Amino acid sequence: MAEEVISDFDRTLSRFAYNGKPCPSSYNILDDSKIISEECREKLKALLHQYYPIEIDPQRTAKEKAPHMVEWWTKAHDLLCQQKIQKSQIAQVVRESNAMLREGYKTFFNTLHQNNIPLFIFSAGIGDVLEEIVRQRKVFHPNIHVVSNYMDFDEDVEEQRERYMASYDIVLEKDETLDVVNGLLQHILHQGDGVETWGS
Question: Is 8 a catalytic residue?
């Protein structure tokens, strides 16, 4: 049996679509929610139209795309910070969204938990949102460890932005060797948080 399971979240553990309709990513859940102003939503949409063609451009290398993706992510995050979202609003936003986990998710999450296998979710999305999705499906077990971008709701907007940007930048790293992910995993495993490593 596996020592641990490592997974992405958006469109990996969560559904890409259901009944022909796209399901939102953890970022889309906030973008499309009622707590985001119409003005902010329009600005986020404009950023999507500007930067998404660059992201999917087959003529550009990952190195060429990277500064544009950093710029997009930074601008979008600044807009979300200006909305002054409250932590208490996250649960409601998730409940009102069309976010769904993949078919068979209960068996997947529960089997790992029952067999004491750690599940590490590395996500470039919003950790507060993705945790709430899993929690509302009643499968957020103690063996789950999330490495993602978290919002610090108790600080002013500028401090919040700086802390968020300084947390985990795996969203900006195209690392097909998985060196970054494996490095973070080893760091977490050796923090003495009670996670057992087998066969090491």
Answer: yes
What does the pLDDT look like over 77-120, one tens digit per residue? Answer: 788 878 888 888 999 999 999 999 999 999 999 999 999 999 99
The catalytically annotated residue of 8, 32, 78, 152 is 8
78 tagged catalytic: no
Radius of gyration from C-alpha coordinates of the chain: 17
Asked if residue 132 lies in contact with residue 14, where contact means CB atoms within 8 angstroms, the answer is no
Distances (CA, A) of 145 to 31, 43, 107: 25, 33, 18
Residue of 131, 129, 125, 126 whose CA lies nearest to 144: 131
The HSE-up count of residue 81 (CA atoms within 13 Å, CB side) is 21
Vertex 15: Cα angle to 80 and 37 (nearest 5)? 20
What is the reported pTM?
0.70
CA distance 167 to 143: 22
Q: Which domains does the chain have, with CATH numbers?
A: 5-167 (1.10.150.340)
Record the tokens describing residue 134, joined without a space: 């899993």
